[in-house]
Every structure is written in C-alpha cells, then in structure tokens.
Amino acid sequence: MRRHVGVKIAAGAVLAAGVCAGILLxxxxxxxxxxxxxxxxxxxxxxxxxxxxxxxxxAKALRPALPASRATMVRNAVAWARAYTESPAFKAxxxxxxxxxxxxxxxxxxxVDDEMARQSAERRKDIEEMKKGFAQLPPDTRKSMEAxxxxxxxxxxxxxxxPQMVAMLRQGIEAQRASEQEAYQGRLEAYGRRWPADPKALxxxxxxxxxxxxxxxxxxxxxxxxxxxxxxxxxxxxxxPPTWKLCYRAGREATAAAREAAQAWxxxxx
Length: 270
Hints:
Layout: H1 2-31, H2 37-50, H3 59-62, H4 67-85, H5 88-101, H6 112-132, H7 139-161, H8 163-194, H9 199-213, E1 223-226, E2 229-232, H10 242-250, H11 252-269
Antiparallel strand pairs: 1-2
Helix pairs in contact: 1-4, 4-11, 6-7, 6-8, 7-8, 9-11
C-alpha cells in the first residue's frame, strides 16, 4: 500500500514538474522576444483572424540577434503559440468569439399577407399625417396639398384593389425575402469557413497558408533605395504577401526554423 502511495506521489511530482517546466519555457519564449503574454496572445489571435503575423512587437529583440539565436527564438515562439492554442482557456475564448460572430437570420416578419397589411397600414398612416397638417397651411398651399392627398389615396386604393398591383406587391415582398435569405446563407457559409467548430481546423488552415507562402522566399533578393525606404530590385517581389516579406526580413535560418516547427505542428493536428 505504501509503495502504491509512493508511486502516486512520485508520478504527481513528475507531472507537476513537467507543468512548471512548460510554464517556464512558455514564459522564457516570450521574454526572450520582449513580448508580454497578453501581446503574444494578441499576435496569435490576429494571425488566426487574418493570416497576418504581426512580428513588430518582437522586432527589437529579433533584429540584432545572430541567425542561430534568431532561429531558436522563433522556434520557441512557435512552440508557445502551439501550447496557447491547445489550452482550455484559448478554446473557451474561441468558442465565445465564435458564438458572438454568428450571423443573425433575417428578422421574422410574419407571412407575406402580414407584410402586405403592414405596408397598407403604413401608407394610410402617412396619408392621415398629411391631412393633419392642412389646418396650419395657407389656402393656396392647402389646396395643392389636398390634391396631392387625393392622388395618394387613389394610388393606395389601386394598390389594394387592382389584382395586378396586388400581385406585383406580393411578388416584390417574396423576392425581397428570398434575397435576404440567400444573403444570410452566404454569410452563414462565410462564417463557417472563418469560424469552424473545432479551432484546430482554423489553425491547420493558417499553418498551410504559411508553409505555402514561405516556400519560395528568395533570401538573396537585392534591395535598392527608394527615398527613405528600401525596396526590392525585382519589382515582382514588391507584390508578394506580407508573410513572404516577413520571412525575407527574418532570414533563412529563422524561416527554416519556423517552417520546421509549423510542419511539426500541422502533423500533430492531422
């Protein structure tokens, strides 16, 4: 019995040590970049949101580092990002944001007949409001307004009694509702792509995007002055996405480390 208790205590101690080591490693990864935990989370969340990696908070630490040290810093940062996206806190926050981003369906407005009755009541109300202002108008103006009201009443009667006009009103309402439903379905599909139920699917998509964009970075590309800035001598490189340019600035070693870590992360998801 004592032996089993001792084994359990030892196992617990090993587990606690592992957790502490993981926490220290995570803190060290961010500390070496001069980035707070809050900022680190913002960077990862921003990457998942848009695919853009905002490395500017870590630029001060990365820029002067030697290539090998920079690669280690990048590798540790990716490890921290992976641990963060696998944490219960991240998953809970992701689900909260996912539910908050869900598009609302078209507002229920009753049947088509209900909508036609509502529109009819609205038109009659507008005519009655016009009549209320007659007493405040000069005779000449009142006469022209009375004529306008009579025209409005005649037009409204036609809308409500002419079968062709009634059919057109009905078709218009039905077409508008169909358009609203189609637009809602489009928003729902876009939402499903942007906010998959399992955040791992979104992480995997961003990792694949990164690996695709970073696969052909030309680290030997030349820069030329352009005013106070530097631009690529090859104009085609100026059209490359921000992640491609970020990898170029990070350098061959750091990009290779990031790609290796991303591939391992993606393999772990699959």
